[in-house]
Structure formats: structure tokens, C-alpha cells
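Students often ask what a holo structure prediction actually looks like on paper. The answer is less mysterious than it sounds. You provide the chain, you provide the ligand, and the output is a string of C-alpha cells encoding the 3D arrangement of the protein together with 3,4-dihydroxyphenylalanine.
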Amino acid sequence: MLDKIESAEKGFSAEIAEVKDDEALEAVRIKYLGRKGLFTELFEEFKQLPKEEKPKYGQMLNKAKSSAQKKFDEVKIQLASSESEIQEYIDLSLPGRKIELGSTHILTQTLNEIKQIFKGLGFSIYEGPELESDHNNFEMLNFPADHPARDMQDTFFINDKFLLRTHTSPVQVRLMESKEPPLRAIMPGKVYRNEALSAKSYCLFHQVEGLYVDEDVTFAELKGTLVAFAKQFFGDDVKYRFRPSFFPFTEPSAEVDIWWEQKGKPGKWLEIMGCGMVDPNVFENVGIDNEKYVGYAFGMGVERIAMLKYGVGDIRVFFDNDKRFLQQF
Ligand code: DAH
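The corresponding C-alpha cells follow.
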């Protein structure tokens, strides 16, 4: 019995000293410490010993097995920590990861260009909130509650008083209520409409509103300003037309169309903005003397004019975040 215990101890020490990985460790465990391992066998044999020999060998056997178990645990911990060392090893000679630089979105570029042109024409920039009151979005702009023109815009209502603005025109109201004429500003921003999504319309888009209020503003000046804008934005040879139209907050009103031609397709007129002379009722609503002051206003669709300028056929691509589209600009 003594020999057997000693040889198991030796064998175990020799084999565990050679262990380099988890697999080898597991093999040693099964061979010596497992349910059918050598130490278990020795305990079985021990049971057969005569009573008077039991205390002596029992002690030896227990000691041998528990020191083997202790050694086994140590090696196991060693292996685990050297593995995590490997994982944390940083190879400083590896080339760095390339950081991709973003670029300005085509709509932001277009907005910046519009702002730049109007700044050059003497307009300042004013902004209002996207969550707007029904009062500013409709009522102050001469759309009474039951006016059929409200149907022109499918609205996302928040409750019966508030909504997501359907146009940037309520910012005119805010500007006229907060500052005294003369006023000359553009008001860029996002607007929302509850419309079926298609190549032509999206639930979200951008507009740039414009307003000029002074004592002697004329429709001719409105035309001159918008033509100057169109020429700077699209080029001197841009083909445009002013077409009579209706808006509750301007009288008279017009829409501006730009001629669009794509290679191999018949050309067509595309509407890019509405405009007109500020309706005297609007001046009255905001408390501006409509005997003394006149004004013009306009509102253009930013996606529309970007589509025209860059030949984009579907409004939805501006919002898809597809790098293949965005990287072209
Ligand atoms: N708010 C109008 C729309 O969203 C556009 C517009 C038309 C704005 C005429 C104006 C204007 O300021 O005078 O369709």
C-alpha cells in the first residue's frame, strides 16, 4: 500500500509539472483525481485493509490526495491567468485603425448655400420651434378653423392646441410679434406632413421661409429677389416662371417653377416655392400697422431645389443615410 501511494504521488507530480494547457490538465485530473482515478482506486483498496492498518494508511492517503488537489488548483489558476495575459497583449507595431471622416450632408450643404445667398441680399437668419401651436401655424396666418385651405396640409397634431409645424410660415408670425419693422429675414427649418410616402413626398422635409416688411416693398422687388436667388443657385441660364396661386397669408400670391430637363426625357416645370405680398389680415393679427407697412414673403422647399440642382429623382434618399448616395456630394 505504501509503495502504491508513493508511486501515485510521484506520478502525479511528474505529470502535472508537464501540463501546458487546459486539455493536459483535464487529462491529469481524470487520471488521478477523477471518479475512476488512481486516488479513488487507492481508497477502494484501503477499505479492504485490516482494521489495525487503516489509521496509518488512511492519513497518508488523505494527505496525498489533498496535496494533489491543491497542486491541481494552483496549476489551473496559473493557466487561466496566463490566458488572460495573452488576450491583453497589445501589439504596438500593428498599423492603426483608419478613422473615417464624415462630410456635410447634401441637405445641409444646400441650406448653407441658400443662407449664404440670402445673406448676400441683406437677409438675416431667424429660427422658430418645430413643435408649434395651431394658433401660429394656422390661425395667425389667416387660416380660420374651418377654412378649406387647411386641407392643403395634412397635419401631425400633438393635441387640439399643438402640432408639428407643417410649414416655416409660423416663424414669420414669431418674428413679426417679437421685432418692429423694417424686417428682412430668412427662416430655415424642418417641417412635417402626414402624407403617404413616395418619391415626391416625405413626412419630413426642410423649408426656408423669407419675409421682408417695410414701408414701400413691392411685388417687383419680390420677383427681383427671387430671380437673383434662382440665378445664383441654379446658374444664370436658369429657366423660371411666376404662376398666380393662392395662399391664405399672402395677396396676391404666386408660385415659382423651374424648368427641369434630364437627358433623354421631356422637360417639365417643377414648383420650388410659394410667395406673395403679406396679407393685411396677417399684419393686423401680429399688431403691425397695415396702413403704414407692406411686405412680401416666400417659402421654398429645400429638398425640391436640391433634387433639381443635383438631379435626384427620389426625395426619400435624403433620409436613408445610404453612404453610396451621400458620398457623391
Ligand atoms: N407655407 C407655404 C407652404 O408650405 C409656402 C409659402 C407660400 C410661404 C407663400 C410663404 C408664402 O411665405 O408667401 O406651402
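The mean pLDDT is 92.
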